[in-house]
């Protein structure tokens, strides 16, 4: 598939990251944006980022920074972007009306072999493709930020997405070195946010209930569970944690899991819990003052870079 054309709609944070991932794998990438100056800015920023990564030794792919940069160009018209593209990655802001308008435009331009994948974090594909003629060629391919260092991509089909379209997108993601997971059907929050929110809810309840400080609640993940989960998931962890695997684990611990789970209490609506929010915000600010957020984000990126390098060395 390398050498084929990829179109990216929206050249903000995520559109730029996808452009770099596709170019690293040798695809020809065209970037389109409603705001033409965004494309110019993206091309300049991507080029300097590729050189920065090369200097640090963390550039992906076999080509040099300059070769990868040369694979990425700007495009002034949506029609031009779609023409001859095997895959369109949509990266416009998270507003349903905006996505609906854009998909309506794409619907009349699409060639039969072109797949359109949305980077959306929240909208199920049926919300904006239901009325379209070419809806069988559309699905969600949701990355995690920063996609250059986090390989997971959630593929979410609408009820009418063709199965071969899902499989072709899965194969495409693999050629980038990303690690796709396929949801068999669309579900609100996809998989990542459903699991992430379950954790966030319980951490909220533990801190709000006075059981743990913010720092200690976060340590449970960063110094405990997260170390396991950087390597393997919750189910494989359980499978390994009983002498005879997962069925044995459930036989041994199922009663305790059910009892603890029954004690969680109602799902919090964080917007209305002012006391807990004030408390958590104060402690978060002690942990990382608002003025230090940019440095802490940079440290996270550095950490993720090293972790992804280390993970690639593991069997
Ligand atoms: P952004 O605001 O950085 O970039 C969006 C770009 O789209 C802007 O350059 C804007 O000018 C352009 N745009 C707006 N309307 C357009 C149109 N009709 N046609 C072409 N271009 C248009 O947004 P960001 O953060 O890159 O998000 C894009 C998508 O990726 C969203 O759906 C978001 O949910 C998803 N996403 C974002 C993540 C994040 O951490 N920011 C993580 C994973 C997914």
SSE blueprint and pairings:
Elements: E1 5-9, H1 13-24, E2 28-32, H2 36-56, H3 65-70, E3 72-74, H4 78-82, E4 87-90, H5 96-109, E5 115-118, H6 126-129, E6 138-143, E7 152-157, H7 163-175, E8 179-182, H8 192-208, H9 214-229, H10 234-240, H11 245-262, H12 274-287, H13 293-313
Query: Which spans have pLDDT < 50 for at least 5 consecutive residues?
Result: none
Radius of gyration: 22 Å
Q: Profile the largest sheet.
A: 8 strands, mixed
What is the total tally of β strands?
Answer: 8
Helix/strand structural class: alpha/beta
Distance between the termini: 26 Å
Describe this structure in words.
With 315 residues, the chain is α/β, with parallel strands linked by helices. It has two domains: 5-182, Rossmann fold (3-Layer(aba) Sandwich); 194-313, N-(1-d-carboxylethyl)-l-norvaline Dehydrogenase, domain 2. It contains 13 helices and eight strands. It has helices spanning 13-24, 36-56, 65-70, 78-82, 96-109, 126-129, 163-175, 192-208, 214-229, 234-240, 245-262, 274-287, 293-313, and strands spanning 5-9, 28-32, 72-74, 87-90, 115-118, 138-143, 152-157, 179-182. The chain has an eight-stranded mixed sheet. Helix 1 (13-24) crosses helix 2 and helix 10 (234-240) crosses helix 11 (245-262). The two termini are 26 Å apart. The model has no long low-confidence stretch (mean pLDDT 96). It binds 1,4-dihydronicotinamide adenine dinucleotide. 1,4-dihydronicotinamide adenine dinucleotide (NAI) binds at residues 9-15, 32-35, 38, 91-94, 98, 102, 119-121, 142-143, 145. 1,4-dihydronicotinamide adenine dinucleotide binds at residues 9-15, 32-35, 38, 91-94, 98, 102, 119-121, 142-143, 145. It comes from Drosophila rubida. Belongs to the 3-hydroxyacyl-CoA dehydrogenase family. Residues 189-255 form the 3-hydroxyacyl-CoA dehydrogenase C-terminal domain. Residues 5-184 form the 3-hydroxyacyl-CoA dehydrogenase NAD binding domain.
